[in-house]
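Response to reviewer comment R2.3. The reviewers asked that we include at least one raw input/output pair. We reproduce the pair for histidine kinase here without editing.
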Amino acid sequence: MSNETDVSTAPDFLASGGEMGAQMRAFDWASTMLGPPEDWPRSLKTAVRIMLTSRQPIWIGWGRDLIYFYNDAYKSIIGGKHPWALGRPASVVWREIWGDIGPMLATAMTGDEGTYVEGQLLLMERNGYPEETYYTFSYSPVPDDDGSPGGIICANSDDTQRIIGERQLTLLRDLAAGTADARTLPEVCERSAQALATNPRDMPFALLYVAEPDGASASLAGSCGIGRGHPAAPETLAVDGTSVWPFTPTLHDPVLVDDLAATFGADLPPGVWRRPPAQAAAIPVPASGEAGRAGLLVVGLNPFRLFDDGYRRFLGLVAGQIAAAITNVQTYEAERRRAEMLAEIDRAKTVFFSNVSHEFRTPLTLMLGPLEEVLQAEPERIADHREDLVVVHRNGQRLLKLVNALLDFSRIEAGRTQARYEPTDLASYTAELASGFRSACERAGLRLVVDCPSLPGPVHVDRGMWETVVLNLLSNAFKFTFQGAIAVSLRPVGEGAELRVSDSGTGILESELPRLFERFHRVEGARGRSHEGTGIGLALVQELVKLHGGTIRVESEMDHGSVFIVTVPFGTAHLPQERVLAEPTGAPAGARTQTYVEEALRWLPGSAATEGGAPVPLIGAAETVVAPETGGCPRLLLADDNADMRDYVSRLLNGRYAVEAVPDGQAALAAMRANRPDLVLTDIMMPVLDGFGLLRAIREDADLRDLPVILLSARAGEEASVEGLSAGADDYLVKPFSARELIARVDTALAMVRLRREADNALRESEARFRNLADHAPVMVWVTELDGSCTYLNKSWYEFTGQTPETGLGFGWLEATHPDDRQAAEDMFLAANAKKEAFRLEYRLRRVDGTYRWAIDAAAPRFDAEGGFLGYIGSVIDITERKEVEDAQRRLNDLLEQRIASAITEREQVEAQLRQAQKMDAVGKLTGGVAHDFNNLLQVISGNLQLLAKDVAGNDRAEQRLQNALSGVSRGSKLVSQLLAFGRRQPLAPRVVNLGRLVRGLDEMLRRVLGEGVEIETMITGGLWTTFADESQVENALLNLAINARDAMNGHGRLTIEAGNAFLDDPYAARHAEVEPGQYVMLAVTDTGCGIPPDVLDHVFEPFFTTKPEGQGTGLGLSMVYGFVKQSGGHVKIYSEPGQGTTVRVYLPRAHQAEDVVTVVDNGPEAGGSETVLVVEDDDDVRATVVEMMADLGYRVLKARDAQSALAIVESGVPIDLLFTDVVMPGPLRSPDLARRAKERLPGIAVLFTSGYTENAIVHGGRLDLGVELLSKPYTREALSRKVRHVLRNQQQRSHGASGDRSGPKPFAEPVPERTESRRGLRVLVVEDDALIRLVTVEMLTGLGHLVVEAGNAEEALSIAETQPVDALLTDISLPGMSGEQLAAALRKRHPALPVVFASGADRAPAGGVHLPKPYDDAALAEALDKAVDKAVKPPR
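Raw output as returned:
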């Protein structure tokens, strides 16, 4: 077969479709199970035509093997399988994904339902390799021409890029969010790995390596999808690129690593895929800045995706995100280290200035104070102040020593030290320096051991610097050694000399050893002879030793002593040669030894000049101060570790007060407990127990806490003063201070003590008065303190509750409250106490007799003179009687609220019913909307099957198949009818019916349908009213309800059918939407079945909802009942209880007329004719079928595809007997308008409408307009022939009646009574905006012998009345623009006696006219017109 086929010779359905259309035309279909395209089923042809003309990717599978078809848009999906896949079984085309799609296709091929999936993962092999794809598609079954499933049609949408892009964006977002608040490099790497683990499809496994600080290697910092220890996850990588993953400093672009299985074996983790990655990508993580650390991200690649530019860019973004996070952490870490360094510098500065201020201010106090006294003394008394001048000299030397140390240290740090290294007999020099401390050691009770044998030769040292080193170490040992010995030794060790200064002192904490030689560092809490020191001594020693090329270290054990070891090298090679001297300078030794020794001696107890006796006062004691308690001289206790300071202050105050001096806080605490002083003066920086510790101990001691304390400190400034006063001191005096200032502060403190005691006495007296007043108050009174504890309850409280002070004070008062109120009362009280605000609370309080009474507790906060919160004062009042009144009022309110809630609930129920009704109406509109196209399709199938029946007559097998197909059409037609019934869109033919007669008539059929297992009981109320309803629909509804009842009873049980009169009152109507109060005929069906659960009951009327097993029900039975009843103006209600049965009550409006006479419909054999029929149908297939059926019946057939074309045929003058037109057609001209204009052109033409859905064109209020004939699709050949003959006969009778013969039967009413001559030939003006109603009314009036002038609105009618005579007006009330009532008034201004008939669907008409209710027949129309004429000619009274 050639590759190209002439399009003109191809079947119509293959005539388009681009490349795939050409491929299908060229394909040898005869060699397949489908055969030539001309023989394909019609449904397959339709499906293929839809597919080829669609721009959406679509494929079709047909037959048992699902032979494959697809369109041009699908080529991108099928990829490299194009065009090979055309005509092959779907299981062969998609063998790799058949396990995924095969079950879905099998489900769809059952014909019961299709399938729909979104974003389905499919691993397709379209281009020679499996690839990850995502598709949204549906499998919809396509029926074969016999109704069985013939194949599948599938519409596709490719979602691959969208889904992959979304998950990659999600990973990048999670990665940024997860690492945003990380603060360390390990934390960043760990969180990055956690984020990468969330996308195992793009990253089956991932490894993150970070270079070490030295750059020699990179370590594994994070991983996901693969365990540590795996061969593919080594802990370190070399930077030379020799490791399993390439990592070099020059790596800038991603590196693809192939064949992972050969490198690591087959046990690589696959992630979420069924095979492990075959490739990995190594992506560099760039470093930031010179100090940044580079990294490497290794990612196992998705085995079902190509490593294309998009994949590469994504991994680059991931690596960039990680690099940015690492950079942020490194920046944060650098800033943190810098902040810590600055904080440490600031701390060292603070410590230094704190220490040095003490070291400066104490000597200055001891210098300035005595000098002030000397300057104020008489000239002849200067000699008496020698001791003062000695103190001044000694402290001047101390300051000089401190300044020299600071200068030495600053010169060393600045590199400006001018050292001179001269050869020195280091052993004898060291022994000489150490011996200077012997006298001090002996006075302290210590042994000094000096062991310095001669060294092999002289050692080059700066003698002054060495002196500083030795004296500092000895002074330090003396300060912290209280017993035992101090040893100094010098030995040659290796290539140098080693100096060891050891002691048996207090030792040093191990945690302090690393910082011992830091500048300004002092060991906090160390026990020593003095707290003096700046913290630069050992730091200076270390710097001096370093200048000699030596080292210093310390060994220590707590409570066993310390050893300082200094090593200096022999020779001069390690020294700057320009500073080395060849000969000794002969400088004197020990120039500063005496200063160090004198300072050490001052640390010893009893080292003051006047030790042993009372210090001589510096100020005269002319004024005597009386102690506040004893009346004698006030006693002062002085605590200071500096002997000079103790001596100086004692001499200042001794003439005025009795002063006891102690060296530290511990001694002071013992002294005041032994003999309570009147005031305490204490230094802050002291050994053993410092000033703050002493102050804290005083305030915690109940016997001492009221002692006034003045702190003496070298720390100046507001912050230091606030700290001291906040700690509890009464005053804070900064060194240096003058003698008069000290005395003034002491006097003031003692005076304040006296005033405080007087105030305390006054307070106690005031409290006594308050308690007396409160105890006699008629209410309960209480007082609390700052912490909330109750400190006072008055007498009324104890009498009411029966509590005692032991059980009620503190928080015991809560025990008297009701257990249920206790926690709430406590919480409210504590919350108010925390906010320091007033409060009120109510609780039940236990009375002494054990009963509980309601009480109100109200309190106001107490404040001192400065506004400080002190606690509360409150009162408690019994309010039981008031609560009882409130409870009664509350019960009344509760009752009212219950009634309101009940009303609201009832309203909500009504609203819920309204929403349900609206939902059902919306679903009804949707279901009704599909009827037209579906009925057209059924009509095509049905008509062709009936035509085919003649061709296969005599072929039993073929006839049986045709009968089966026609049965399927019948079922489809029934389904559409049920849909229309539910949607309230079916055209009803209602009449006055007696339901009792109808139920009795169905009794036999129901027994036959329901079976012998169901017992049927019928109950018909006497005097049953009639109703206006479509009898056939009532029968269908009753049959549906009975069958549902049988199924609910499983074929066995009692079925009760009841018909009776009912009245639905206003309350019932208010509770149910769409129910009008009034009289109804009730039809009830009750079964003894399983009942309906409450959650199912709300859904039973929804279309397609069923609880029956699959295949045993469509779910449309009750929906049809619901729609029919609502369309008939009725109401349906279900009552059910699980396990008890169900009752369905149908209420149809009462009719006040007698039951209509039943007319027997002609069911005789089909008959044709020779008349001319114009068939108007927009659907080509339906039109062709109808034309063939009409021709087969013998009619001469004309055809048109729309109303406009049909009108052209009518106006051409061709004789036409019947217009057979579809109702719903495209185009500007509607079918009713076509019928009206055809009637105008051909008055004798008959009109028959046909439709699958009328869309309110000829149906109003659910009922066919009067005079309209309708044949509903789909219809059989027999139904068509009978309906055509019926319409033609009626038209012939009307035409005959119009010519003067009234004896024939009327199609819509009984014969019209003979009228007087004056009533014939009236000229009637008909005004109606609905064209079809206007057409029917004109036809009826013409049949009654009147002349008719018609108008579509009131304005057109007024124009006609001005130019033509009018005998009567027949008008609709609701017209566009001017209403019918206004039109009648306007015409009566001109013609006052004009007869007027108002035609309306309302229940009444305006005054001045006759009401003609719609719908109406020709009898009602004639009667209304007669009444209007009679009313107009009747003479007025």
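The first strand starts at residue 58 and ends at 62. The CA atoms of residues 652 and 739 lie 7 Å apart. Further pairs are available on request from the corresponding author.
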